[in-house]
Protein backbone atom coordinates (compact mmCIF):
# COMPACT_ATOMS: atom_id res chain seq x y z
CA UNK A 1 0.00 0.00 0.00
CA UNK A 2 1.45 3.36 -1.01
CA UNK A 3 0.61 6.61 0.76
CA UNK A 4 2.40 9.91 0.64
CA UNK A 5 1.82 13.11 2.52
CA UNK A 6 3.08 16.64 1.95
CA UNK A 7 1.96 19.80 3.71
CA UNK A 8 1.74 23.33 2.32
CA UNK A 9 -0.52 26.37 2.70
CA UNK A 10 -1.09 29.57 0.74
CA UNK A 11 -3.50 31.31 -1.64
CA UNK A 12 -7.34 31.27 -1.79
CA UNK A 13 -9.57 28.98 -3.79
CA UNK A 14 -11.20 30.39 -6.90
CA UNK A 15 -14.45 28.76 -8.03
CA UNK A 16 -16.38 28.63 -11.25
CA UNK A 17 -19.99 28.09 -12.31
CA UNK A 18 -22.62 26.38 -10.19
CA UNK A 19 -24.60 23.25 -10.88
CA UNK A 20 -26.03 22.41 -7.47
CA UNK A 21 -25.74 23.77 -3.95
CA UNK A 22 -24.18 21.88 -1.05
CA UNK A 23 -23.65 22.31 2.68
CA UNK A 24 -19.95 21.44 2.24
CA UNK A 25 -17.66 24.16 3.56
CA UNK A 26 -15.16 25.71 1.14
CA UNK A 27 -11.49 26.10 2.11
CA UNK A 28 -10.77 29.08 4.34
CA UNK A 29 -9.86 32.28 2.52
CA UNK A 30 -6.12 32.81 2.50
CA UNK A 31 -4.94 29.25 1.88
CA UNK A 32 -4.77 26.71 -0.90
CA UNK A 33 -7.36 23.97 -1.14
CA UNK A 34 -5.94 20.70 0.15
CA UNK A 35 -6.38 17.70 -2.17
CA UNK A 36 -5.95 13.97 -1.56
CA UNK A 37 -5.47 11.84 -4.70
CA UNK A 38 -6.47 8.16 -4.72
CA UNK A 39 -5.64 5.91 -7.68
CA UNK A 40 -4.00 2.49 -7.88
CA UNK A 41 -1.97 3.48 -10.97
CA UNK A 42 1.13 5.44 -9.87
CA UNK A 43 1.61 7.05 -13.30
CA UNK A 44 -1.96 8.42 -13.29
CA UNK A 45 -1.72 9.57 -9.68
CA UNK A 46 1.66 11.24 -10.07
CA UNK A 47 0.70 12.80 -13.40
CA UNK A 48 -2.40 14.34 -11.85
CA UNK A 49 -0.36 15.64 -8.92
CA UNK A 50 2.14 17.22 -11.30
CA UNK A 51 -0.65 18.85 -13.30
CA UNK A 52 -2.31 20.28 -10.18
CA UNK A 53 0.97 21.52 -8.71
CA UNK A 54 0.96 24.35 -11.24
CA UNK A 55 -2.36 25.73 -9.97
CA UNK A 56 -1.99 28.64 -7.52
CA UNK A 57 -5.07 27.72 -5.48
CA UNK A 58 -4.63 23.93 -5.23
CA UNK A 59 -2.25 21.86 -3.10
CA UNK A 60 -1.88 18.06 -3.27
CA UNK A 61 -1.24 17.08 0.37
CA UNK A 62 -1.35 13.30 -0.03
CA UNK A 63 -1.58 10.36 -2.42
CA UNK A 64 -2.87 6.83 -1.81
CA UNK A 65 -3.13 3.72 -3.97
CA UNK A 66 -6.03 2.02 -2.19
CA UNK A 67 -8.99 2.56 0.11
CA UNK A 68 -7.28 1.74 3.46
CA UNK A 69 -4.43 4.12 2.63
CA UNK A 70 -6.88 6.82 1.56
CA UNK A 71 -8.85 6.55 4.79
CA UNK A 72 -5.69 6.72 6.87
CA UNK A 73 -4.42 9.78 5.01
CA UNK A 74 -7.83 11.46 5.17
CA UNK A 75 -7.59 11.35 8.97
CA UNK A 76 -3.96 12.50 8.95
CA UNK A 77 -3.95 15.40 6.47
CA UNK A 78 -7.58 16.67 6.64
CA UNK A 79 -8.07 17.36 2.91
CA UNK A 80 -10.71 19.73 1.57
CA UNK A 81 -11.41 17.35 -1.33
CA UNK A 82 -10.68 13.74 -2.23
CA UNK A 83 -10.17 12.97 -5.93
CA UNK A 84 -10.57 9.21 -6.34
CA UNK A 85 -10.60 6.59 -9.07
CA UNK A 86 -13.83 4.59 -9.34
CA UNK A 87 -12.17 1.23 -10.10
CA UNK A 88 -9.25 0.12 -7.95
CA UNK A 89 -7.91 -3.28 -7.03
CA UNK A 90 -9.59 -4.61 -3.91
CA UNK A 91 -12.11 -2.15 -2.47
CA UNK A 92 -13.44 0.33 -5.03
CA UNK A 93 -14.01 4.06 -5.17
CA UNK A 94 -17.65 3.40 -4.26
CA UNK A 95 -16.49 1.69 -1.06
CA UNK A 96 -14.29 4.71 -0.32
CA UNK A 97 -17.23 7.05 -0.86
CA UNK A 98 -19.35 5.16 1.64
CA UNK A 99 -16.56 5.03 4.24
CA UNK A 100 -15.83 8.76 3.90
CA UNK A 101 -19.52 9.58 4.23
CA UNK A 102 -19.68 7.45 7.38
CA UNK A 103 -16.46 8.67 9.01
CA UNK A 104 -15.92 12.19 7.64
CA UNK A 105 -19.41 13.59 7.10
CA UNK A 106 -19.51 16.21 4.38
CA UNK A 107 -15.96 15.81 3.02
CA UNK A 108 -16.53 16.04 -0.77
CA UNK A 109 -15.29 13.39 -3.17
CA UNK A 110 -14.81 13.87 -6.91
CA UNK A 111 -14.75 10.63 -8.90
CA UNK A 112 -12.25 10.38 -11.76
CA UNK A 113 -12.75 7.27 -13.89
CA UNK A 114 -12.23 5.57 -17.24
CA UNK A 115 -15.83 4.31 -17.12
CA UNK A 116 -18.40 5.98 -19.35
CA UNK A 117 -20.22 8.62 -17.30
CA UNK A 118 -23.58 7.74 -18.85
CA UNK A 119 -23.32 4.37 -17.12
CA UNK A 120 -21.48 5.10 -13.86
CA UNK A 121 -21.89 8.78 -12.91
CA UNK A 122 -25.36 8.31 -11.46
CA UNK A 123 -24.15 5.32 -9.42
CA UNK A 124 -21.32 7.45 -8.00
CA UNK A 125 -23.65 10.34 -7.17
CA UNK A 126 -26.04 7.99 -5.37
CA UNK A 127 -23.11 6.77 -3.27
CA UNK A 128 -22.27 10.35 -2.27
CA UNK A 129 -19.85 11.73 -4.90
CA UNK A 130 -20.02 15.47 -5.58
CA UNK A 131 -18.92 15.08 -9.19
CA UNK A 132 -17.77 12.68 -11.87
CA UNK A 133 -15.11 13.25 -14.53
CA UNK A 134 -13.87 10.80 -17.13
CA UNK A 135 -10.09 10.40 -17.28
CA UNK A 136 -10.23 11.07 -21.01
CA UNK A 137 -11.36 14.67 -20.43
CA UNK A 138 -9.04 17.61 -21.04
CA UNK A 139 -6.86 18.90 -18.21
CA UNK A 140 -8.90 22.10 -17.96
CA UNK A 141 -12.09 20.12 -17.41
CA UNK A 142 -10.62 18.23 -14.47
CA UNK A 143 -9.40 21.46 -12.85
CA UNK A 144 -12.79 23.12 -13.42
CA UNK A 145 -14.51 20.13 -11.80
CA UNK A 146 -12.20 20.31 -8.77
CA UNK A 147 -12.84 24.02 -8.26
CA UNK A 148 -16.57 23.64 -8.75
CA UNK A 149 -16.84 20.88 -6.14
CA UNK A 150 -14.64 22.88 -3.76
CA UNK A 151 -17.10 25.77 -4.16
CA UNK A 152 -19.85 23.50 -2.84
CA UNK A 153 -21.47 22.49 -6.12
CA UNK A 154 -21.93 19.27 -8.07
CA UNK A 155 -19.92 18.79 -11.25
CA UNK A 156 -21.28 16.84 -14.21
CA UNK A 157 -20.73 17.22 -17.93
CA UNK A 158 -23.49 18.81 -20.02
CA UNK A 159 -24.25 15.39 -21.49
CA UNK A 160 -24.70 13.77 -18.09
CA UNK A 161 -26.72 16.69 -16.74
CA UNK A 162 -29.09 16.34 -19.70
CA UNK A 163 -29.45 12.61 -19.04
CA UNK A 164 -30.36 13.08 -15.39
CA UNK A 165 -32.77 15.91 -16.18
CA UNK A 166 -34.32 13.67 -18.83
CA UNK A 167 -34.89 11.00 -16.20
CA UNK A 168 -36.50 13.49 -13.84
CA UNK A 169 -38.75 14.72 -16.64
CA UNK A 170 -39.69 11.18 -17.65
CA UNK A 171 -38.05 11.51 -21.07
CA UNK A 172 -37.20 7.91 -22.05
CA UNK A 173 -34.87 8.87 -24.91
CA UNK A 174 -32.70 11.09 -22.70
CA UNK A 175 -32.85 8.82 -19.69
CA UNK A 176 -32.43 5.45 -21.42
CA UNK A 177 -30.43 3.06 -19.28
CA UNK A 178 -27.70 0.51 -19.90
CA UNK A 179 -28.19 -3.06 -18.60
CA UNK A 180 -25.15 -2.44 -16.40
CA UNK A 181 -27.18 0.11 -14.42
CA UNK A 182 -29.35 -2.73 -13.13
CA UNK A 183 -26.42 -4.07 -11.12
CA UNK A 184 -26.03 -3.20 -7.45
CA UNK A 185 -22.78 -1.53 -6.40
CA UNK A 186 -21.34 -4.84 -5.17
CA UNK A 187 -22.49 -6.69 -8.30
CA UNK A 188 -20.84 -4.03 -10.45
CA UNK A 189 -17.63 -4.43 -8.48
CA UNK A 190 -17.67 -8.21 -9.03
CA UNK A 191 -18.56 -7.68 -12.69
CA UNK A 192 -15.59 -5.32 -13.14
CA UNK A 193 -13.19 -7.85 -11.62
CA UNK A 194 -14.59 -10.61 -13.85
CA UNK A 195 -13.87 -8.34 -16.80
CA UNK A 196 -10.26 -8.11 -15.65
CA UNK A 197 -9.97 -11.90 -15.93
CA UNK A 198 -10.08 -12.55 -12.18
CA UNK A 199 -11.66 -15.79 -10.96
CA UNK A 200 -14.21 -16.24 -8.13
CA UNK A 201 -11.70 -17.26 -5.46
CA UNK A 202 -9.41 -14.29 -6.15
CA UNK A 203 -12.41 -11.94 -6.25
CA UNK A 204 -13.52 -13.27 -2.87
CA UNK A 205 -10.06 -12.58 -1.41
CA UNK A 206 -9.91 -9.06 -2.86
CA UNK A 207 -13.34 -8.08 -1.57
CA UNK A 208 -13.26 -9.96 1.73
CA UNK A 209 -16.20 -12.16 0.73
CA UNK A 210 -16.80 -15.89 0.70
CA UNK A 211 -16.54 -17.73 -2.61
CA UNK A 212 -20.19 -18.72 -2.14
CA UNK A 213 -21.19 -15.05 -1.93
CA UNK A 214 -19.21 -14.22 -5.07
CA UNK A 215 -20.90 -17.08 -6.91
CA UNK A 216 -24.29 -15.76 -5.78
CA UNK A 217 -23.37 -12.32 -7.17
CA UNK A 218 -22.34 -13.93 -10.46
CA UNK A 219 -25.73 -15.63 -10.72
CA UNK A 220 -27.54 -12.36 -10.02
CA UNK A 221 -25.42 -10.56 -12.62
CA UNK A 222 -26.19 -13.20 -15.24
CA UNK A 223 -29.91 -12.91 -14.53
CA UNK A 224 -29.92 -9.10 -14.69
CA UNK A 225 -27.91 -9.04 -17.93
CA UNK A 226 -29.84 -11.90 -19.55
CA UNK A 227 -26.78 -14.15 -19.84
CA UNK A 228 -27.11 -17.93 -19.90
CA UNK A 229 -23.71 -19.17 -18.75
CA UNK A 230 -20.54 -18.30 -16.90
CA UNK A 231 -18.59 -18.14 -20.17
CA UNK A 232 -21.09 -15.64 -21.59
CA UNK A 233 -20.67 -13.52 -18.46
CA UNK A 234 -16.87 -13.57 -18.78
CA UNK A 235 -17.02 -12.56 -22.46
CA UNK A 236 -19.56 -9.82 -21.75
CA UNK A 237 -17.54 -8.43 -18.82
CA UNK A 238 -14.27 -8.47 -20.77
CA UNK A 239 -15.89 -6.74 -23.74
CA UNK A 240 -17.31 -4.12 -21.41
CA UNK A 241 -13.86 -3.44 -19.98
CA UNK A 242 -12.40 -3.08 -23.49
CA UNK A 243 -15.19 -0.73 -24.52
CA UNK A 244 -14.58 1.44 -21.45
CA UNK A 245 -10.87 1.82 -22.16
CA UNK A 246 -11.70 2.67 -25.78
CA UNK A 247 -14.08 5.56 -24.96
CA UNK A 248 -13.09 8.45 -27.28
CA UNK A 249 -11.56 11.58 -25.83
Automatic annotation (TrEMBL):
Residues 1-25 are annotated as: Disordered. InterPro entries: CheY-like_superfamily, NreC/VraR/RcsB-like_REC, Sig_transdc_resp-reg_C-effctor, Sig_transdc_resp-reg_receiver, Tscrpt_reg_LuxR_C, WalR-like. GO terms for molecular function: DNA binding. PROSITE patterns: HTH_LUXR_2, RESPONSE_REGULATORY. SUPFAM superfamilies: C-terminal effector domain of the bipartite response regulators, CheY-like. One of its GO terms (biological process) is regulation of DNA-templated transcription. It comes from the Bacteria. Keywords: DNA-binding, Phosphoprotein. The keyword Manganese does not apply. The modification 4-aspartylphosphate is found at residue 85. Residues 34-150 form the Response regulatory domain. Residues 176-241 form the HTH luxR-type domain. Pfam families: GerE (PF00196), Response_reg (PF00072). This is Response regulator transcription factor. The keyword Lipid biosynthesis does not apply.
